[in-house]
Design goal:
By secondary structure, the protein is an alpha+beta fold. The chain is built from 13 helices and 20 strands. The protein has four domains: 33 residues, no CATH class; 137 residues, Gcn5-related N-acetyltransferase (GNAT) (Aminopeptidase); 129 residues, Gcn5-related N-acetyltransferase (GNAT) (Aminopeptidase); 90 residues, SCP2 sterol-binding domain (Nonspecific Lipid-transfer Protein, Chain A, 2-Layer Sandwich), CATH 3.30.1050.
Length: 539
């Protein structure tokens, strides 16, 4: 037999190779040809090869015997030798899985590959079960109700909670009891599994936000921490949503916090609502300070006077906090150490004050870190700036957290003040009707607008409302059943920004987070207009 048996892709071993010797009686030099206008020259090659094979009625010179056609002897098919090709009656090798494969075996039904299911990595917010139960099982908790919130018992859980907080916030566990003393054991909440394991914690901070000249009750949230083995399983989302239910039941119309991650708290209905700045003053370059008021150290028994002064000033600062004991402890006893307090005294008593802590700076100079700076009169503000300027020989600069537009900083000319946006805090409206009633409104302002709110956590907040403002008061009441007319539609997160003055209704509509006629959008802007909210402190 001429022609060597070869194996290759799409080539029969009996077909002659390009430029090589072929079988006896067959044309030499048969080339693979792709007909014009057709793809897949392999089929054409098969037809041409079939035409060159000897037929029974037309024996070729290579046949032997008494007129019988004998096909070339081929080695028996074995592993890797291929199977018979039905078109040519020959054996041709090919790999499993090649397209256009033909076989004498009956075709088996193809198994459809199941597409992998996409599983959301979070515990189901409402219902605490359903499609996300696998996450609860993975965490080793009950899929029906994976967690529960419990009060803090220092004797039972003190050491365990201290280790969790120390690992989460990178401080020695033995420092945790001091933080508990400030906040109060009764304000700590523990996230526990059904079998009693500690999964997380948070701290309530009862306070208020001054909005429109009135203090609106608010429950701040601080110290949110989740044990490492429960992270990424929806534990923090579950804890926040459950805590919000308790806050609303306790009568808080608002809740606010500083987020470590914005996405997490948006799932609970929080949204960005205010700014927190860091301002640096070069002390030797301060101009505008004076000594119009006597500046002296504060005494411990003068703290009630200091708190009254702060409240008188803060009521006119949009977004500032109505402080409780925990927040005041952060002013005069911060983490850096005890703060030094000084008062600017006028004819009628204290007109301003500041608290600062010395912090090691570069070289032999220090930095003054101000935890509070308040002035009720221009004279007090300039006198406190004079105190700071007088410390320029031993201190390089002073760091405080007033916004750049604060009245005290307007006494400093030139470019001595350097401010940058450090953080943004978030707000959650728990009870829209109570929040509107508690907020202040400009007395000459009056108007009416219909709102349609969406809130997946509190269905009682969702639906159509009518807002009316007159004589410095606002009222949000349920619209009549079947009420029609123009309405501004937005979710509870967008409503928090509109309510606080962080975003206008027109801006929310421009980014697709509010929808309504132009007249309704303009009316909402008229009612909610005001300065951007800021905070001079963290909590």
């Amino acid at each position: 037999m001429g022609g060597a048996l070869r194996r290759g892709r799409g080539r029969s071993p009996d077909l002659p190779l390009r430029g090589g010797g072929g079988l006896p009686g067959r044309p030499r030099g048969l080339r693979r040809h792709r007909p014009p206008g057709r793809r897949g020259g392999r089929s054409a090659l098969r037809r041409r090869a079939a035409a060159t094979l000897p037929r029974p009625d037309r024996p070729g010179p290579g046949d032997v015997g008494e007129g019988r056609l004998r096909r070339p002897e081929l080695p028996a098919g074995g592993p890797g030798q291929g199977r018979a090709a039905p078109l040519l009656g020959l054996r041709r090798p090919y790999r499993d899985g090649r397209r256009h494969r033909r076989s004498h075996r009956p075709a088996l039904p193809r198994r459809r590959r199941r597409r992998p299911r996409l599983r959301i990595l979070a515990v189901r917010p409402r219902g605490h079960g359903g499609r996300r139960r696998h996450l609860a099982r993975r965490a080793g908790v009950s899929p029906g109700r994976p967690f529960r919130l419990a009060p803090f018992d220092r004797a039972e859980r003190g050491q365990e909670l201290a280790e969790l907080l120390g690992l989460a916030f990178n401080f020695p566990p033995e420092d945790a009891p001091e933080w508990w003393d400030r906040g109060g054991d009764d304000r700590l909440r523990l996230l526990l599994t059904p079998d009693g394991r500690l999964a997380g914690t948070l701290l309530w901070v009862p306070m208020g936000h001054f909005l429109g000249g009135r203090a609106v009750g608010c429950c701040g949230v601080a110290g949110v921490a989740v044990a490492h083995e429960f992270r990424g399983r929806g534990a923090a989302t579950w804890m926040m949503r459950e805590a919000l239910r308790e806050m609303r039941a306790a009568g808080f119309p608002l809740s606010s916090l500083y987020p470590s991650t914005i996405r997490l708290y948006r799932k609970a209905g929080y949204e960005l609502a205010g700014h927190y700045y860091t301002t640096t003053l070069r002390l030797r370059e301060i101009e505008g300070g004076s000594h119009e008021r006597r500046v002296r150290p504060l005494r411990g028994d003068e703290m009630p006077l200091v708190r009254d002064l702060y409240r008188r000033v803060a009521v006119g600062r949009h977004g500032w906090l109505d402080r409780d004991r925990y927040l005041w402890s952060r002013v005069h006893r911060p983490r850096l150490g005890p703060a030094h307090g000084f008062a600017a005294e006028g004819p009628d008593g204290i007109e301003g004050y500041l608290f600062f802590v010395n912090q090691k700076g570069e070289g032999w100079k220090s930095r003054m870190v101000l935890t509070d700076l308040v002035a009720a009169t221009p004279e007090a503000g300039r006198s406190l700036l004079g105190l700071l300027a007088g410390n320029g020989t031993m201190h390089e600069d002073a760091v405080l957290h007033l916004p750049p537009e604060d009245p005290i900083l307007q006494h400093i000319p030139g470019r001595t003040v350097r401010s940058r946006l450090e953080e943004r805090w978030m707000l959650r409206v728990l009870d829209p009707a109570a929040a509107v009633a508690a907020r202040g409104w400009p007395a000459p302002l009056s108007g009416r607008v219909d709102l349609e709110l969406l809130d997946d956590l509190f269905p009682e907040n969702a639906g159509r409302w009518t807002l009316e403002v007159a004589a410095g008061r606002g009222e949000l009441r349920r619209a009549a059943a079947g009420a029609a007319g123009p309405v501004l539609r937005l979710d509870v997160r967008s409503f928090a920004q509109l309510y606080a003055g962080y975003q206008s209704a027109a801006a929310l509509a421009a980014i697709g987070r509010a929808d309504g006629p132009e007249e309704t959008v303009a009316a909402a802007d008229w009612l909610f207009r005001g300065p951007a909210p800021t905070l001079p402190e963290m909590f």
